[in-house]
Amino acid sequence: LSYKIPFDKLPLTNWITANVKMRSSYDWMRAPLALPELGNTVQNARNFTVNGQVNMVTLYNKVGLLRKINNDGRGGRGGRNAPQQNRADKGKEKEKDKKDGDEKDKDKDEKEKKKREGVH
């Protein structure tokens, strides 16, 4: 037996979804034919499961300031629609910065060498 809780029917709680599931079982074990005086054994079990989810984007869009931050991406940390960089691009940028820094260091070293030698 499962049931979806109707949070989506109310505008105030439409950012929440939840499901409830119940499972039950029983087992009837008869006494052995050789020993009927032991009697029968009956067992039952019941399990409840509740799953919930929260959609934070929908919640943020309900508050004016948070909606603006979420949609514009100008909130300091970026928003949902802010451009994302993957790790490969970040690695390439670091390598490029390192190469640029190495070239600047070489130029600087050459200038200092020329100064020491008296060549301008």
Please tell me the overall pLDDT: 79
The number of helical elements comes to 3
Strand order, largest beta sheet: 1-2-3
Give the overall form.
elongated
Strand count: 3
Question: End-to-end span in angstroms?
Answer: 88 Å
Largest sheet: 3 strands, antiparallel
Sketch the topology as an H/E string, one letter per element: EEEHHH
- Residue share in helix: 25-40%
Q: Specify the structural class.
A: alpha+beta
Radius of gyration, Cα only, in angstroms? 34 Å
Low-confidence stretches: none
Tell me the β content: 25-35%
Describe the structure.
It is built from three helices and three strands, in the order E-E-E-H-H-H. It is of the alpha+beta class. A three-stranded antiparallel beta sheet has the order 1-2-3, with no helix packed on it. The model has no long low-confidence stretch (mean pLDDT 79). It has helices at residues 56-60, 64-72, 87-117, and strands at residues 2-5, 16-29, 41-54.
How would you describe this structure in keywords?
single chain; 120 residues; three-stranded antiparallel beta sheet
